[in-house]
Design goal:
With 538 residues, the chain is mostly helical. It has 2 domains: 72 residues, no CATH class; 364 residues, Na+/H+ antiporter like fold, CATH 1.20.1530.20. It has 19 helices and no strands.
């Protein structure tokens, strides 16, 4: 009898597993088909001045969610439940790494102090602005059981800009200065917001004093410096290994695999050590493009450029499709539907706080940054400040992932206040991405006409995978260097710090770093290949 009961239970379990496997296969098929549709529509809308691929994927995700909602008679709107682990572990790393790998380093480091000022100090200003306003407003609105720690978390959640969408709405070739500033700030901002959010999980708002604040700031500086160091170290280690072993003489596949795995390892190590994986993998990408990429064979260079860009592109499209489909999750809207007016009011207030919070640091910090510039060309103009403010208003998957982490358990919640905050976050993300994302390109065309956007000192980089990736064997390192006069006194160092630091970095790089870690000038070849000097090409 007992044997029959056990057999019956095993049979039911087997049926359940078979049904679950079938549902997973159906979900994956649907998602892959939607990804293909996003790519095709993105290609057809390439020249559209209003839409970009991220917004297209978001719209397709929303439409698919509506269709699923109708076919399941209101029971479900998605085929995959949003998971912050899926986002942070699998989707975000290839996007951030490719951004660091493809970034124009000269433009990025030329504005590094301004980027750090906006990304770190600016995020703190935005955090305090949104948090204090949320405490003052929401505490009077009777939103469930939310307390001060929840309102502080809201400040961190809505201080995180959408650096992924910035890649879509700004062009690195047309607006190199704005791209490096807004995107660089976005990367530092995301890292700062995540660090802030994690620090607030163990923060007691009832015990605040000067020592606690100093410890908090010291911990933040430690995380920032340690994460950057880990990324640089990982990139240099990959460059040294590939240069010394020259794996490409036997297998270019191993070169490519090693670069990919070491980049991903740097991110996972940062997460293991409770550091910022975003900063780590971003700087790992920069170092790999400066040293490691030049140490591999010519075919591996083509392959890595294509592979990193493709993985990033698929992750971006998947991400916006994912967010669009999950936005209509009927469970969360059902718990917030008791007070739709309150939910709309909270979403509107949060959107207004995002606008105010960003303005609170963009314009004052731009003014302070301009005080250190000697020429008008180096200063951030009023029109550029408006574009920087506007382009950073979009909120994306980082905000949603942090909100899910704070207000749900395994993607689900049955608390009224938590459900309202989740639905309000989704509303702000959809509205800001759709509205601000659609209007960013026309705004740039209006405020910054095409005749003033170009920078003749910088070569164009590939805009898509169909562009030739190796028009220059040396990639972004072939940027034409500006003539730099060696400073003759401390006064020159003070008046032109960027040029002076760049000059001494070049000397250090050429004298010590490149001979040890490779890079431009070290072009390996496979015996018998076209790069072998012993082979005579007819």
């Amino acid at each position: 009898m007992a044997f029959e009961v056990v057999a019956a239970q095993l049979a039911r379990l087997s049926d359940a597993l078979a049904t679950s496997d079938h549902a997973s296969v159906v979900s994956i098929n649907l998602f892959v088909a939607l990804l293909c549709a996003c790519i095709v529509l993105g290609h057809l809308l390439e020249e559209n001045r209003w839409l970009n691929e991220s917004i297209t994927a978001l719209i397709i995700g929303l439409c698919t969610g509506v269709v699923i909602l109708m076919t399941t008679k209101g029971k479900s709107s998605h085929v995959l439940v949003f998971s912050e682990d899926l986002f942070f572990i699998y989707l975000l790393p290839p996007i951030i790494f490719n951004a660091g790998f493809q970034v124009k380093k000269k433009q990025f480091f030329r504005n590094f102090m301004t980027i750090t000022l906006f990304g770190a100090v600016g995020t703190m200003i935005s955090f305090f602005t949104i948090s204090l306003a949320a405490i003052a407003i929401f505490s009077k609105m009777n939103i469930g059981t939310l307390d001060v720690s929840d309102f502080l978390a809201i400040g961190a959640i809505f201080s995180a800009t959408d650096s992924v969408c910035t890649l879509q709405v700004l062009n690195q070739d047309e607006t190199p200065f704005l791209y490096s500033l807004v995107f660089g700030e976005g990367v530092v901002n995301d890292a700062t917001s995540v660090v802030l959010f994690n620090a607030l999980q163990n923060f007691d708002p009832n015990q605040i004093d000067a020592i606690v604040i100093l410890k908090f700031l010291g911990n933040f500086c430690y995380l920032f410096v340690s994460s950057t160091f880990l990324g640089v170290f990982s990139g240099l280690l990959s460059a040294y290994i590939i240069k010394k072993l020259y794996i490409g003489r036997h297998s270019t596949d191993r070169e490519v695999a090693l670069m990919m795995l070491m980049a991903y390892l740097s991110y996972m190590l940062a997460e293991l050590l409770d550091l910022s994986g975003i900063l780590t993998v971003f700087f790992c990408g920069i170092v790999m493009s400066h040293y490691t990429w030049h140490n591999v064979t010519e075919s591996s260079r083509v392959t890595t450029k294509h592979a990193f860009a493709t993985l990033s592109f698929i992750a971006e499209t998947f991400l916006f499709l994912y967010v669009g489909m999950d936005a209509l999750d009927i469970e969360k809207w059902k718990f917030a539907s008791d007070s739709p007016g309150k939910s709309i009011g909270i979403s509107s207030i949060l959107l207004g706080l995002v606008l105010v919070g960003r303005a609170a640091f963009v314009f004052p910090l731009s003014f302070l940054s301009n005080l250190t510039k000697k020429t008008e060309l180096e200063k951030i103009s009023w029109r550029q400040q408006i574009v920087i403010w506007w382009a950073g208003l979009m909120r994306g998957a980082v905000s949603i992932a942090l909100a899910y982490n704070k207000f749900t358990r395994s993607g689900h919640t049955q608390l009224h206040g938590n459900a309202i905050m989740i639905t309000s976050t989704i509303t702000v993300v959809l509205f800001s991405t759709m509205l601000f994302g659609i209007l960013t390109k026309p705004l740039i065309r209006f405020l910054l006409p095409a005749s003033s956007n170009g920078d003749p000192s910088e070569p164009s980089s590939p805009k898509s995978l169909h562009s030739p990736l190796l028009t220059s064997m040396l990639g972004s390192d072939m940027e034409a260097p500006l003539p730099i006069v060696r400073p003759s006194s401390l006064r020159m160092l003070i008046t032109k710090p960027t040029h002076t630091i760049h000059y001494y970095w070049r000397k250090f790089d050429d004298a010590l770093m490149r001979p040890m870690f490779g890079g431009r000038g070290f072009v390996p070849y496979s015996p018998g290949s076209p790069t072998d000097p012993n082979v005579i090409v007819a």
